[in-house]
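Known limitations

Files may contain more than one protein. Parsers should not assume a single record per file. Below, a two-record file is shown to illustrate correct handling: read the sequence, read the token line, then continue until end of file.
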Amino acid sequence: MKKKKRLYCVHCGNTITRRDEDGILRDYCINCDVFFYDNPLPVVSTILPIDRSILLVKRKFRPYKGMWCLPSGFAEVDESIEDATVRELEEETGVKGKIISLVDVDSCSNYFYGDLIFLTFEAVQIGGSLAPGSDTIAVKYYPVGKIPRLAFDSNTKAVRTFIQNKSDYWAIIDSFSAAVDKDHTPSRKKNLLSDRLVDVIRENEAIIINGWLNEVLMNRSTPTYQSFDRDRLWRRAHDVLSLFSTWAGEFHKDRGGRSVDIRNYFMGFGKEKKKEGFRLHEILSALSLKRKHIWEFALSHGISKKPLDIYMAFEFDRRMMIFFDRATFYSTIGYMEA
């Protein structure tokens, strides 16, 4: 069934003709000298999310009877778009909602209703209880990865836009959850956003070490380093950087599933440095400079001003802080015990 054409004038009953107005062919009544305008109808839709699921309704009537869609409906005369949105949500789902933000605006031509403008809002529940309404036969939350085919293309577009807008936020939540999860079993794979920066560091170890070496050989806080064998310094710096990459990149596990032993390595590191004549403040300064060069390289090669990258930088800095705090602590103990 298609939208019916206008046949007669609503004012005088005369047969409608067609006449050009400003380059557009419109319905026209010769008797009344009146043009009739077919403007797009405003339709409101609501995305009501819980975690990563979206509330859908199954349509009770034509068109698209039995198909799923967002809670949707036409705005009434003398009704604001916002009021229409929360009204339709409650009528179709039983949920009283509050609008959070506009998600998407789309115009389309529908075979049944004609030209439409869909305005889709995100909302939260503030009352009511979930139940089918007079125009729906079922209501159900669907995970965003398992959304069925929707009755209206504009609904599909709005859901896609919503998911894209939330993708960075969800990625941050996932990464944060993985970072604070204490389950470090080898069978459990951890994926953190800052793993990308760990890979950047691993792939550019030589550049970072050379930058650190050039500074430590000139810095006032590390005079003993300036008279030490450069090749040996380079190899040890490589060992520390590799240890950091392995510890961070494998989420505190090496490739064999064994814990990366920061304690024993840096206690031995501190003892060895004391025997070689380094003063404690020089060792700590050199470690601090190493952390500085890792951080500066990561910022310049993997970070932008996007919120996701800013979070990634904070997460990476936290991992560096944990590693180098332990390195400093155990190096000091080893040095004092030597």
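...continuing to the second record:
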Amino acid sequence: MRFVLVLIGIMFALDVLWWAISARIAKPIFARVGVAIFALAQLAGLIWLLTQRFAHAESMALFSKFAMASVFIWHMILLPLLLLLAVALLPILAMVALIRIARRVRNSNPPLLDANGALSRRQFLGVALAAAPPLCNLSLATIAMRQLDHFRVRRFVLPIAGLPSDLHGLTITQISDMHVGRFTSGRILRNMVRVVNELRADLVLLTGDLINDALVDLDHGLDLVRSMQASHGVYLIEGNHDLIENGPEFERRMKHSGIPFLLDESVVITVRGTPLQLLGLSWTRARENRDSAIATAVRQLLNQCQPESFPILLAHHPHAFDAAAAASVPLTLSGHTHGGQLMLNEQYGFGPALFRYWSGLYAKGASKLIVSNGVGNWFPLRVRAPAELLHLTLLRS
């Protein structure tokens, strides 16, 4: 909690600092007014989002998705980038400031306008520098809005060693990171359910983060899950966002929902006369040595494996794959990474910076891992990490 408060304080401080600097370099009154309006709007937006968050309310009827996207992008991307740029350019900025001070000693204040009433070149440059970050913010928010209602269907055909012959051709629709709430609502959720049902998979498996964070959205999320169809059932595990507001209450309501919810539990289902075991891993809450804690949790869960059943591990965090592969689990399904969210290309970005496995198919020996980019969003902007549903076809190798 202390870290969160410090982070919020830094955001407010950066807002005020940007406002002060931009107002100083943008001399014309119209530019200063524009800077003030943008800065006040961002501060008001941040206060509104924090109020909603701490009030455990996710209803944003009075605050458009575009405005929310603008606030998120400004405070989580552009302000940090501007701070890093300022730190990198600090020696140059200091030298420029000294030169300007020396010129002011020699000259009186230069006129704001030239003889024809136009901005001087220096003043035009100041206005442009002050206007660039807000314009970039609005452009990125516009791009984000175009993305929020779109997702792809990504298909994998997986040869699986040891797959029982009766399970050859088994189809799975994997749904991860729906994040029902702030940015994922309305049309995209209706389209998602429609596409899931059109895929007519044998199994629908949800690998965590059903809701964004507010329990007020859980009933809607559950209604969506109940609308999904699969010939052999729909199964669900938890993710970290599900537990943000009140983890025990989320788990309690899930257990009473009537939807198969696997919380460090397993279920054996019969598919074409063959037993298939789904093992659902809970979210590991450890703050330190998380990977070790995840591995321990996986090993404990795998004690439930029944030798006569074909096992599939559902784990929100993809690092569970290491322990699963060590135990020769043939298939693990994960999410959590959002495909890296912001990627320069397939190899560089937040994905590989934060995770060993971040998108698509990975293999260790005969064990395979699928990591979904997720179909929903907690952050509005994606770069080279498109939202997706996964359709898997298992083949006997």
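Parsers that stop after the first record will miss the second one. For reference, the second record is described as follows. The radius of gyration is 26 Å.
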